[in-house]
Write a structure and sequence with these properties.
Elements lengths: L1 H24 L5 E8 L4 H14 L2 E8 L2 H9 L5 E4 L5 H11 L6 E13 L7 E2 H7 L7 E3 L5 H9 L10 E2 L3 H7 L7 E5 L9 H9 E3 L2 E3 L2 E3 L3 H5 L6 E8 L6 H10 L1 H9 L3 E2 L11
Parallel strand pairs: 1-2, 1-3, 5-10, 6-7, 6-8
Antiparallel strand pairs: 3-12, 4-8, 4-9, 4-12, 4-13, 10-11
Length: about 290
């Protein structure tokens, strides 16, 4: 009788341990580790969202790693990362590769409107730039425009807007958006091309110092000037407005999809707004009393 009782206890113990192991392996959005790949141009907003998520879910640990947009997409396809921040419109071939390799439907989770901006030193006499200047300058041997990298999100986006491949454009490079800002005064005849989120935080001390070094050129379209302010981004009037979105290869509701959901809800969208970008899912409502 005693032996049977001991055997029953052992079986119960094994069952409890087995169930515990299964629970530990079950998907969870509120605990675990996650690495997010993002281009340097939108690193700031990605880090802010990651910090917000970790505050709400203390058992999560999120690391944000900067990687050029194209390389981040490839890592996602090859299962080297679970989530990447993107801005460019994927080609039909890229969407097909995503759906075949990841085995998920292509459903970009849009969360913010950002912009590619054209900057000159603060003391420059230049006050605006036309679309024709941009088109012609990107074909000129003068290499008038300075980008932050050869396969950066900023270059990809400008190339798409001009209906060109990056390899067909002519440009200069200073690695890193912050370096473009800090070194631009050495090249008074050049124009820097960076992402707005590089220094869009309104009350951030570092962002303020960087903004003081340069001025943003409005885009002249048929005599009308468009700037990357909240109205220009919200209404997509600024010609180089771009929408940031998340892609994941996670098929269940684990930490990557939990983070995406958080970023697209009111809390996440408030963080996007504090970053100086336009929230994609929540717009400010104005009521006029008469």
């Amino acid at each position: 009788m005693m032996n049977n009782f001991k055997l029953l206890l052992i079986l119960l113990l094994v069952t409890v341990i087995s169930c515990s192991k299964k629970e530990d392996k079950s998907p969870s959005y509120y605990k675990g580790n996650l690495t997010i790949l993002t281009d340097e141009s939108f690193k700031s907003v990605t880090e802010a969202l990651a910090e917000g998520y970790m505050i709400n879910y203390p058992d999560t640990k999120i690391k944000v790693i900067t990687k050029k947009e194209d390389l981040g997409f490839l890592d996602l396809l090859n299962d080297k990362a679970r989530i990447a921040v993107m801005s460019k419109d994927l080609s039909a071939e890229e969407i097909k590769a995503y759906e075949e390799q990841v085995d998920l439907k292509f459903l970009p989770a849009k969360f913010a409107a950002d912009a590619v901006i054209f900057i000159v030193p603060k003391n420059s006499a230049k006050v605006s730039i036309t679309m024709d200047e941009i088109k012609q300058g990107m074909q000129s041997e003068d290499k008038k425009f300075i980008f932050d990298g050869g396969n950066s999100s900023n270059l990809n986006f400008v190339a798409q807007k001009l209906k060109k491949q990056p390899k067909d454009l002519k440009f200069s490079i200073i690695p890193g958006s912050v370096n473009v800002i800090e070194e631009l005064n050495k090249y008074p005849d050049k124009i820097g091309v960076i992402g707005l989120n590089t220094f869009s935080r309104p009350y951030d001390e570092t962002s303020e110092k960087l903004r003081e070094m340069v001025k943003i050129l409005p885009i002249d379209v048929n005599g009308k000037l468009y700037t990357p302010n909240s109205d220009g981004l919200r209404e997509m009037k600024y010609p180089f407005t771009r929408v940031l979105y998340f892609l994941t290869n996670e098929g269940n509701f684990n930490i990557a999809n939990g983070f995406i959901r958080y970023s697209c809800t009111q809390l996440g969208q408030m963080i996007v707004e504090k970053e100086g970008l336009q929230p994609y899912n929540i717009y400010r409502r104005e009521v006029q009393m008469r």
